[in-house]
Amino acid sequence: MKQKQQNTRSRLLVAAFLMTQAPAVIAGYYNSSIDGISLDGIYTPENLSNISKTVCKKVYDDANMDKEHTQMCERGVQSAQRMAAVYAAGEGTHLGCVDGYQQGLYRGFNMTSNPSIEILKEEQRALKGVTLENAVARGKAKASKDSRYSTESEIIARFRDNVRDSENQQITAPSSDYSDVLKVPRFEGFGDGYAADGKGGSFKDVINAGWVSSSSAIGKRIQARAVARQFGIKANLADKCSSTPILFDRGLHTISLWDLFSAYGEYNFKDYGWKSTTRAWNKFKASEEQEAIAYRNIQDVKEAYQAKIGYHKKSVAVEVDELDANGQPTGRKVVKRDANGNIVYKQVDDTSRPIFETRYRTVQGKSAQDLKAVYEDAFFESYRNLAKEHFGKAFVSTHNMARNLGEDAGKAVGAIVARDVAKQEAYDSVYKAQSATSFAKEYENLFVTSWNKNYDYFANNPMVEITGFDLSGDGNGIFTRGESLKSVLGLRNLGLKSGAVKVSLNSSSFEAGSARSEYVTAPASLNFTHKSQSAQGKLSNNLEVFDTAYLTVSIDGSDIKKVYELKSTDSKRIEILDVAPVYKADTKINSVVAGDATVYVTVKNPSNSETSASVDISVAMNDGNTYTASTTALKAGESKRVPVRVTGLDPLFIINNGVSGKATSKVGGRIMNSRSASGDSVDYDRAVADYFNSILTNSTTNYGSDGYKEDRVETLITMILNRTEAQIDTDWDNNARVANTLIGALQKEYKASAAAGKLNEEAKQTYVVLAQELEALYDDVFGYKDYVNQLKVFNGDLETRKKKDRKKD
């Protein structure tokens, strides 16, 4: 952007220089924006006969080319000539107009757009002695915003430094002189008054048209408004450059004059020009011109030839094998006769008399595709040679006329801009100065008013600030539900007058209606402390231990709240506790088979006095039963980890659900709090295997809800079968993976008990039956033998069976 601005300034200087030069030098200001086309060039389109000789020479000289190829080449040249004469010339005419007009527009604008000294002085004189009310109002508004509360901190600091060390000292007033603190901030003024006040007309139309935005530089908005005034908001290039036959996108016909103007003589033509032959060829092929229709209808060149399609027929006698008297072949052939003794004949091809038919085929090298290729090559080469000449001739001719029109239009726009810029610069200069002066005066006035007001507050009232905030309750070092609270405050009266101020304590954690205020006398210009004489609020009994309560204390007096920077409120956060709450509860399974677990409950006394009685602990477990324990009274700050024994649990309940619960502590029958105990669980496969084996080896009689050994064994076998069915896809040949299954866990228990001599015949037989039932689960072929081999740990006589036999089970 910076570079573009520098380029624009450079062009303005060049324009000013050129205006002092001779006409010949000025003419050199213009140049062509089209690559390969010069305004100094002389373009003479070559005549058809000359270019045909050049382009078609290779066809004429090629011995493999005939009259059809020559005809296609010459017709391709003719088509290119017509297309170039129409479209290359049309594009040259249109682009010459666009380029000439845009350059002329920019040059003409540069000639008149800079306001003269006389115009600038004229606009400045018109505003001499005029008060711009909006500038004054904006300056005041800014001063009001910037100066808000600007004197409070200084006033507070002076009166704070003035506070006495004791009541015996005399009360004195700090200095009321503000000269050393009044510092009006530097403000240069608002420089956008012309636009802000809508001078010179509205920019609404050009903003709505998308030419500029409300944040665009004022100079650009003025230019856009001038273009709209000169040409109209809907004007486009079609109004200046008439429509001519073109092959490129027609967008250049409808480009707005603002887009053209705002390019400042450098509108982008990279997508346009004379070099593309493809556009012309595509236009030609799709047109309904006679030549194009003839091109599309080019046919293959055919030649006749005689094709043999068969032979004439002739009659020949049929021969058969000769038979002897016994009906046996003699090896000789004889003529066949019918029942009447006549010779039998048949029709055969007479190869000496062939039959021919006249047919047609495409002559090699003269297919429609071949001929069209010659046509297309000739068109492309011819158009390349002709387009530049037709384009250039039309471009140069139109460029000269269009730039003169552009210059006149640019001068008109420049004259409008020059007058508007002079008005804008003069208006903004006055606006800026008046808004800056207004700001400074208003700022000082507001400061003095604020200073006097705030000084008066402190000189004539008790103005108390909070320097410390604490709470007191029943004195045991903690805050509990239902406890009444008092505030303990450090206060400082900065005012020169003593008087009563109201102290209020509030919290959403208070019991409804319990909050109250009280009045305290604040001695003038002195630090002092205050502890409430009676309770100012009561904590709700609905709070839970470890809840957080937020409390706010507030000081209010006649003018205290009017000074925003005076600290008249403070807040504190407290934790709700009790004398022996549960801080932590952990569950540990001791034995699945025995149905035994322990919940370790940590209780602590956070207060500064011993609990009034022992601490009773109960744990409601997830099996529906409650288990209890107790400990002696807790000393201040003492913590104990109390074990609560949980016994008689059903092993299957532990296996399926784990063990968890909620621990509650009480002192003297009063509930402290409840906290969930962390749960504990077991590995399903190992626990089931251990419990199953323990029953079989008579290591336990804990049969849980089943009551009888046989019933519990059946329940466990069902569980083992269901679990194994879910694990049936295991690689049973991989012992490491088998070890992670229920069968693997059972193998481990079985082997250990067998080695220890704990397996009686009943247990062994149960394992044999289990192995048989497990074997029946496997309904696939692949991996079956490996699976059975694993089961042989329990039943060595187990045999493999065919799949159909397993299905019978």
How would you sum up this structure, described in words?
The protein is α+β, with helices and mostly antiparallel strands and 809 residues long. The protein is 43% helix and 20% strand. It contains 23 helices and 19 strands. The strands form 6 sheets. Strands 5, 6, 9 and 10 form a 4-stranded antiparallel β-sheet that branches. It has a 4-stranded antiparallel β-sheet with strand order 8-7-11-12, with no helix packed on it. Strand 15 and strand 16 form a beta hairpin. Helix 7 packs parallel to helix 15, helix 10 packs across helix 15 (368-460) and helix 17 (684-696) runs parallel beside helix 20. The model is unreliable at 1-27 (pLDDT under 50).
Name some characteristics of this structure:
809 residues, alpha+beta, four-stranded antiparallel beta sheet, 23 helices, 20% strand, flat
Question: In summary, what is this structure?
Answer:
The chain is an alpha+beta fold. β15 and β16 (626-631) form a beta hairpin. α3 (48-61) packs across α15 (368-460) and α17 runs antiparallel to α18.
